[in-house]
Amino acid sequence: MTDQAYNPNNTCYRHPDRQSFVLCQRCGRTICPECQTPAAVGVHCPECVREQRAQFAANRRASGAPSGFTVARRRFAMLDQKGTVVIIAISALIWLLDQVSGRALTSWLAFYTPAIGTQPWRLVTGLFVHSSFLHIAFNMFAVFIFGRILENMLGTWRFLALYFLAGLGGDLAVAWLSPGTPVVGASGAIFGLFAAFFIIQRSLGYNAVQLLVVMGLNLVIGFLPGTQISWQAHVGGIVIGFVTGYVFSKTRNVRKQRLQTGLLIVEVVVLILAIYAAFISIGGLSVWGA
């Protein structure tokens, strides 16, 4: 039996000693973070980047048109972890505004099942609201650590899809198991990152049991009395993280990108419909129509 950890298809074509999950969106070769150049969709390898730049330079010389990118946009385009940076920045900004407004944003943005009929944005915005400085500090530290790793492995758009799908998974579990409880925080999405990272590491041939133990210990903490932690969101995030990580591991090939996109869309639709089914089950339909 071949050990996947030494499968050449899982190693960078320029650095055979480096494992990677990311493929060049143009040629399909496996590339490590050092060799990845962010593109409009996914990342490109050094050879494809050189070809594109040469073609761009030739077209620009022929037309004489100036570049439309500003310095700020160019610098942002050079970031390797745009999604991670944006999530942390938005979360920090909302926390600061929430403190200044006397926690007004919490009551308007928190996920709350009875309110999603008329305020559907709560499905997503609850991920960016936090109850205290320690709450946001610990959550954003986890996003900073695992977000950068996963974004380098998956690419920005896949990483963001995973993050928000896991967040919806947390919403779903809360909607069915604790519908009358307002919930804030990114922990459901973060537990989804843990679960997906475990699945992806296993698909690449690594032993990720230690990560599973850490995830289990953190999950147990949520069940301790007096912690005021939404264990339901954690469980929902983990389940969807496992599912999404499995989808990524099985549709890694460039030829399966349409299948991957389709499966992610199915996840979104099923999760949203299931959340609204919980909303209706608690009498939300009559409240919505009132």
TrEMBL record:
SUPFAM superfamilies on file: Rhomboid-like
Q: Does the keyword Transmembrane apply?
A: yes
Report if keyword Lipid biosynthesis is assigned: no
Extract the Pfam families matched here: Rhomboid
Single biological process term from Gene Ontology:
proteolysis
Give GO terms: molecular function aspect only: peptidase activity
Q: How does it sit in the membrane?
A: Multi-pass membrane protein
Q: Which residues form the Peptidase S54 rhomboid domain?
A: 118-250
Q: Which family does it belong to?
A: Belongs to the peptidase S54 family.
What InterPro entries does the record point to?
Peptidase_S54_rhomboid_dom (IPR022764), Rhomboid-like_sf (IPR035952), Rhomboid_protease_S54 (IPR050925)
Q: What is this protein called?
A: Rhomboid family intramembrane serine protease
> Where found?
Membrane
Record field: transmembrane: 83-101, 121-147, 159-177, 183-200, 207-225, 231-249, 261-288
Q: Which UniProt keywords apply?
A: Hydrolase, Membrane, Protease, Transmembrane, Transmembrane helix
